Structure formats: C-alpha cells, structure tokens
Amino acid sequence: MQTMFQAGQSWAQGFAQWLAAVQAQAQSQPQSQSQSTTAQAAASASPTSKSDPAQAAAQHGALQQLQQAFMARHMALWQAQINRSSDKNAASSTPDAALPRPQPGDRRFSAAEWANSPIHDYFRQSYLLNAEYVGRLVELLPAADTKARERMRFMARQYVDALAPSNFAATNPEFIETALASQGESINAGIRNLLADIEKGHISLSDETAFEVGRNLAITPGAVVFENEVMQLIQYAPLSDVVGTRPLVIVPPCINKYYILDLQPENSLVRHAIEQGNTVFMVSWRNPQAAQGHLGWDDYVEQGVLRALAVAAAICGVEQVNALGFCVGGTLLSTALAVARARGETPVTSLTLLTTLLDFADPGELGLFIDQASVAAREASIGKGGLMKGSELAAVFSSLRANDLIWQYVVSNYLKGGKPPAFDLLYWNADSTNLPGPFAVWYLRNMYLENRLRSPGRLTVCGEKVDLRKVDMPVFLYASREDHIVPWQAGYRSRALLGGRSTFVMGASGHIAGVINPPAKNRRSYWVGEYAGKDAERWLAGATEQRGSWWPTWTAWLQAFAGKPRKARVRLGSVTYKALEPAPGRYVREKAS
C-alpha cells in the first residue's frame, strides 16, 4: 500500500517537474521545428508563477489536505483488498462507492482478468486512484489563465493515460492470459506487428489490407472533369432520372481526404445526396508533396474553392450552385464566398456548413497546441515553403483521444498480438495528408491565434477584405454535440457572423461519427429548434431531440434550392470540361509520404 501511495506522489511530482523543465527550456532556447508540439503546449502551462505569501500558504494547506485524503483513500483501498482476501465472495460483492471506478466508456479494464486476479485488481484501482490524485493536483497548481489551465489538464491526461498498467506487459493480465493460451505465439505476433508498424510509420488502427480507394472505398461512379495544381474536381453520375437544375458542390477538409464523405455505398453522404436528385461535384484536394510546398491560403481559395464553383456552374449551365463545406473546408468555402461578394459576385444560392469554425474563440482541444511561440517557430521553418507532414498532423489528432486511438492498439496489436478489424473510418483516419507550409502557418496565425475571420475587414484574402456578413444566402449549420475539434457552441456562433437566414441542427456523437450517420442504420439522434438568437445554450434548452440521422432533414432543406427539375444527363463534363479520368482520380490516391 505504501508503495502504491508513493507511486502516486511520484507521478504528481514527476508531472510538475516535467512541466517546469519544459518551461525552463522554452525560456532559455528559441523553439525549433524539432521541438514537439506537445512540449510547446506544456510550456506555458508550467506551474512556475510566483504567489504572494498568503496565496502560497493557502495553496500549501490545500495540498496538505489533498495528500491526507489521498493517503486515506489508499488505506481504504488496501483494507478492501484485505477484506477480499478473507472473503471468497468479495469479488462478486457490490464495490465500495468510495473506491475509484473507471470513467464511463473506459474499456481498458473491462476484461474479466482485471477483476479475477486480486493483484491486478489492485493495480487497476491504485492506478485510478493515482490518476484522480494527479487530476486534482492540476486544479491546485497556479495557472496564468483559463487556456493555461486547460493545457495543464490536457497534459496531465496524456501523462496519466500513458502510465496505465494496461499498457505494460508486466502489469496487464490479458497479456499473460493470451500468452499462456497461445503458448507464446501472441508475443511473437505482437513483435511482428510492432516491426510492421515501425516500417509503416504509424500504429495500425484497421486492417489496411481490407480496403483500397477506388476498389471498395470512394466508389460512387463519376469522373474527374477538371484539375489544377491544388485540386481535382469530380462530377458524380446521376442516380435518379430527374435532377435539380442547380448542382451541389462539396468542399471537404484539406487536412484529410475527401472520401470520408464517400466511404462505402451504405454510409456515403455523397451517394445519399445524389439519390435525392442532386448533381454532385466534389473537390479532391491534392496531397501536397515538395513541389506544392509553396501554396498558401489564397491559392486554396482562388484555385480551389472559387474555381470549383465556377467549373460546376459552367458544366450545368447555371449562374449559381449550392455549396457544402466540411470542417476546414467550410472555413475555406465561407472565406471564398466573402471574397466573391467583395468582387460583386454571388456564385452560391445556399450554403451548408458541417462542423465548421468561423469564430475561433473556442477552438476545442486543438487550440491547446497553438500559441505565439509555436506559430512563430512554424513561420520561421516552413512559412515561406515546405510541408507540415501528414504524420505529424495524424499524431496531434490521435493524441486528442489517446486511449481510443493510441493505447488501445498498443495493447491489442503489440501486447496481445492481435490484428485490428477492418474498419473503413479508421482506414481513412490513417490515410494522412500533408499541408503546404505557407497555408498551414497562415491558417494557424490568422484563424486559431488571432481569430481574424470573425471581424469584418480585418482579414485580406485574394486581395479582398473579408466580411462574412456579406455571405447572405440561406445557410444550414450542423454541429456535433461531443465534438472535441469544433465544439458545438462554437459552430452555433456562425449564425451571428453570416448575413443569411440560418437553420441549425446538432447531432449526437463526435466530429466524424456525428456527420457520417446514414439513415438506414437509424442510429444516434439529432436536435432541432426554433430559436435563432445568439445564445447557444438557450437554443439547446428549447430544442427537440429526434431519433436517427439528420441527413433527411438536411436534404429536405436543400431541395428548396435545387431549382427546376430536369432530366438527368448521363454524360459527365462538357465540351469545355471533358472527363479526364474515372473517379476517384489520382489525387486522392497520393500518399503523404
């Protein structure tokens, strides 16, 4: 018991010393490109600020109380273990409410072996108690502001998650049971899996041999009808006899590949939109290599979004199209429409934004990685050319859900020697993309760091002052309730920035799973409400929860802007814009490496 108590104290002391060391390093040396983003995030959160004597005394007293309570809980845990050893039925009895329990959804200790073995059960509960102690300690450490506090909480979670007994062979009973049952073959398989992942450069989250883009992912029929250095534009074949006059142009995020919206026929938002009588075009961003390292935000707006809107309109013979933007694709699309309005142009009749940030005051957990020092370092290293590597971006996103996207697979793939199942969404997640350096640093500074887009005229793009109030077409806004990248309240704030009449819908689940929710599965739910003011919580208080997918609600809204029905054209492209190659095209197949 004393050992476990001291381990928790050592965790807390080590965590605080680590933060202080990173802070000292950051103050004594200019940050280099090689310094990890995680360390940069920790630097400004270090508890090194000086307090006055009264504050110091109060903090000391609070720490003493915390330690005393911590010791008492370890004693209670030890006593429970003694009682268990003397009571054969204790393992099946109701657990003491005072003892630590895993958080809801924490599957690390769900296997029966953790409860059946007294020593491993003690490892588990001691870990949870120590983790709770570190979390409470973070709340007592001084922090400069709310953002610094959030960084400390984030770093503590990373630190504690990494130290879980489930992550180590010596303290994971599942490792032992599996090794015995397989006569050691699971150990050999785990080593092979580890070596294979080292060669690939990432942890395997899915059976990557089960999928291939163009074979069983991104297979909605269509053709590439335009391409330039920035993107290819795909036009999809109709799936109905009659279509609306105005097409739908989709702008996906350039941080990931577009086929998250066209995984397989049963969960493809693209296919669903086509089946509802829309002619659909998709921007397929190029996966930048060294030759594209000079591209900036203006290039993506002018040669990407605005060019795609113009080509789609020309092919369909219309003046205006409907447009949809997803995540950073929505930020690009909204910026592009503001540029067009500044030029006296209105290329879009209706606008749909999915999990999109326009006001970056609350940028979710990604904001914890971004500060003045880290952005300045990026500007110095890749601001005039170069690449932000896809592997680095993938590591950042995985760290936001480390237990689900890192440690779970360390245990299953390496300790237990298993193979991950085939999962299309996780295959897509591992298919990373690079970003051009100038694009990336402009985005980080002007959006995340300085939040310029929300202020009329503060941002200049493609030579035009950007004013989102002039983006005045009807808009459908979607946000996900558990989104850790675009908090739903932040998505809601777009209503006050855009000039048009807005409809807001909130779906259950997170950034990706909330969006990819096909009606046929009848999963999850979504909320709709009549209130259209600025207060997000007031909207939620009056909203009504609906069972199933939000897709039909969106397609019904979109139908009002589709234009007069006409016979679907089998031929893709036009005389000017001929079909260049079948969908999904070359660009989406390019790898980040």
Summarize the entry for a quick read.
The protein has 593 residues and is of the alpha/beta class.
Describe this structure in words.
This protein has 593 residues and is an alpha/beta fold. Helix content is 44%, strand content 12%. It is built from 20 helices and 17 strands. Strands 15-14-13-12-7-6-4-5-2-1-17 form an 11-stranded mixed beta sheet, sandwiched between helices. The chain has a two-stranded antiparallel ribbon with strand order 3-16. A two-stranded antiparallel sheet has the order 8-9. α8 (185-200) packs across α14 (402-415) and α10 (297-316) crosses α11. The longest helix is centred in the first third of the chain and has 34 residues, at 53-86. It is globular and about 80 Å long. Mean pLDDT is 89; it is low at 29-49 and 90-94.
Largest sheet: 11 strands, mixed
Shape: globular
How would you state the average pLDDT, rounded? Answer: 89
Mind telling me the C-alpha Rg?
A: 26 Å
Helix content: 40-55%
What is the number of E strands? 17
Task: Count every helix, treating DSSP H or I runs of 4 or more residues as helices.
Answer: 20
Largest sheet, order of strands side by side? 15-14-13-12-7-6-4-5-2-1-17
The stretches of 5 or more residues where confidence is low (pLDDT under 50) are: 29-49, 90-94
Distance between the termini: 49 Å
Oligomer: single chain
How large a portion of the residues is in β-strands, by DSSP E?
5-15%
